[in-house]
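Quick one, tokens below. Sequence please?
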């Protein structure tokens, strides 16, 4: 790993994190410092969620717009009333089924939570992450931890400590390296302050899974990302984007279109990188750089490797990137949501 002089990187066993290391990390959280840590979805950039100055530091380090609120991470359901109020029974039903796990609930904000966390909204985003390092850090810090994904604003979320180091190395105080994250895309964000509950971001928990517990889920928050007013402030910003232009190719003729695009761009003297599933890898042999992120039939694997794949392609020095679309089922909804936001063009 490319060690940076300014940041302390400590390896931790994701299944059995060392108590002394976590005690030290918790102490840093209490001192208002920035600690990046793994969750089951992506790495988070953590700070004391009840301290306004600590929370402000997160925004500065990420270059995050001040109107994009953060998620509070708690370790136990007992801590929910510390951060939220008027918690509906549906929240407890969802928590019972999916927490710890990749589901974030939007609830009325308890006024003890600094307004900075929620970018001034009277709601708050909360989840219990399913990762022993994350839970141990929250317990050691004895405070809810505010944490966005630990990437520079607009970049793909980090799924390894190396990604965090690359984006934020000199801007954080400690990085807990717990290896590659498991889910690979961020948590599902569900607004429980409206009726019916409204999906704001598809993620690790699928829409079908949510419906099994609470019946109706309004998808308007996700569908309107390009046009109507943003209900989740974060939805209006371009995200996950490689610096190199990315074309997302859809339709029944997807493979043929990508083969033709490779030839066309190379004819113009441009170098082409391709992001694809294993099943089609033989068709793209002419690409200047090919990144295979798993089997198309295994969407969990595709989700896990998606952001790392985008980062690898971006680092390869190509002039243009071309990506396959994936089946929009289950976690595929989250995969396609991220790819659409990453794309500069969809054809
Ligand atoms: O999996 C995840 O959720 C990761 C890990 C670290 O937990 N975190 C993450 O945080 O993805 P971030 O900040 O990158 O994304 C949080 C999303 C943003 O789209 C933000 O706008 C939305 O949640 N959000 C946060 N608080 C909100 C609120 N009060 N109302 C509506 N949306 C909110
Ligand atoms: Mg993010």
């Amino acid at each position: 790993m490319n060690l940076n002089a300014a940041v302390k990187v400590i390896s931790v066993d994701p299944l059995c994190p060392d108590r002394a290391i976590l005690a030290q990390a918790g102490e840093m959280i209490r001192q208002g410092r920035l600690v990046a840590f793994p969750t089951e979805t992506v790495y988070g950039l953590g700070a004391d969620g009840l301290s306004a100055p600590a929370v402000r530091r997160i925004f500065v380090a990420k270059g995050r717009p001040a109107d994009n609120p953060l998620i509070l991470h708690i370790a136990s359901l007992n801590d929910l009333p510390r951060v939220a109020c008027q918690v509906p029974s549906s929240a407890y039903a969802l928590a019972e089924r999916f927490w710890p796990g990749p589901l974030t609930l939007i609830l009325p904000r308890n006024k003890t939570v600094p307004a900075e966390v929620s970018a001034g909204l009277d709601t708050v985003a909360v989840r219990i992450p399913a990762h022993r390092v994350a839970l141990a850090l929250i317990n050691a810090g004895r405070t809810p931890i505010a944490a966005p994904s630990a990437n520079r604003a607009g970049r793909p979320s980090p799924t390894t400590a190396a990604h965090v180091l690359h984006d934020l190395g000199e801007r954080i105080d400690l990085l807990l390296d717990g290896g590659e994250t498991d889910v690979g895309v961020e948590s599902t964000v569900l607004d429980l302050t409206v009726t019916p509950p409204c999906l704001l971001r598809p993620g690790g928990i699928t829409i079908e899974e949510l419906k099994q517990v609470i019946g109706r889920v309004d998808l308007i928050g996700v569908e309107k990302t390009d046009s109507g007013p943003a209900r989740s402030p974060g939805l209006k910003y371009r995200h996950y984007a490689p610096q190199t232009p990315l074309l997302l190719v859809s339709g029944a003729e997807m493979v043929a279109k990508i083969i033709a695009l490779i030839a066309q761009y190379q004819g113009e003297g441009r170098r082409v990188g391709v992001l694809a599933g294993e099943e089609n890898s033989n068709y793209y042999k002419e690409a200047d750089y090919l990144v295979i992120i798993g089997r198309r039939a295994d969407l969990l694997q595709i989700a896990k490797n998606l952001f790392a794949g985008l980062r690898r392609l971006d680092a390869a020095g190509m002039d243009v990137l071309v990506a396959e679309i994936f089946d929009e089922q289950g976690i595929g909804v989250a995969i396609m949501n991220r790819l659409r936001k990453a794309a500069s063009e969809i054809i």
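The chain has a mean pLDDT of 93. The chain has two domains: 8-219, 246-346.
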